């Protein structure tokens, strides 16, 4: 396999290049203010290696003839186990000093879906989401109920301390200090302030994958630790089918990352599929349209989308988005910056 990483103009985002290749797996590791000037060479290399490991895991599954669901789950498990990403081991902390994770997965062939939200003891939430889809009559489970179900389903349960990383803990302490300063100031809040987020990048950080297998079936999955300093059991778009995650063999598979409230309000993932199905837009046109809509309503973020022909789109309106893709012949491309 060959791989590349480029700064500056996005090769991945170039629509002409997208039409020339058939992609079988696309991933993201979150969007936000990701600037090369703030990235050390060592950390950039670590992120690149993490994305490549995830792509290799999913591609290996597809090459072995496994389903797109298998590829999506394998890919996201690698990212959940990597503390660099805000999912699983790298999940951020809530206001109360907990790690609460959400995940969803969807089968484009059958429109079956599963998700979990607010879980704190399941090592790989994406696997729990798949178990909800395949081993229950439900679509979404939350909190302790989801954890009990996962345990009964034989999934790996860990002590909550497993998810603690020093970097994420320090991120919470910074957010708490900013909250303390903010509470002493007499000024009107922006929408970000109303949500308890002065630094809106606290909410960016999700991992996701979309895949097309050899049988022509699509699947999508998303996993996240949510937003730093979140309160009141807040849940974002990642585990909500049609908002942050969606897959339909007739159109496209999508995984979103960004300010979840805006992706929920705009039903972004399903809207992208609907634009393709009802208006005949290409995946690139539909992807741009929905991210433009998010931006106009005040939100930030991005998404990855893969259509039934293997055409991909990776639009985002932030300074960067960790992203990568692999073609049917194994060519890997990874990018970070705008």
Tags for this model:
4-stranded antiparallel β-sheet; globular; 338 residues; 9-stranded mixed β-sheet; alpha+beta; 10 helices; 22% strand; Glutamine Phosphoribosylpyrophosphate, subunit 1, domain 1
Explain the overall architecture.
- This protein is of the alpha+beta class and 338 residues long.
- The protein is 35% helix and 22% strand.
- It has ten helices and 13 strands.
- Strands 1-13-12-2-6-7-3-4-5 form a nine-stranded mixed beta sheet.
Most strands sheet: 9 strands, mixed
* Total number of domains: 1
| Relative helix content | 25-40%
What is the percentage of strand-forming residues?
Answer: 15-25%
**CATH architecture grouping:** 4-Layer Sandwich
Q: Quick one: CATH class?
A: Alpha Beta
* Overall morphology: globular
Q: Rounded to an integer, what's the Rg over CA atoms?
A: 18 Å
Report the count of strand segments.
Answer: 13
Uncertain runs are 1-11, 13-19, 184-203
Question: What is the chain-wise order of helices and strands?
Answer: EHEHHEEHEHHHEEEEHHHEEEE
Mean pLDDT, rounded to whole units? 89
What is the CATH H-level superfamily? (Glycosyl)asparaginase
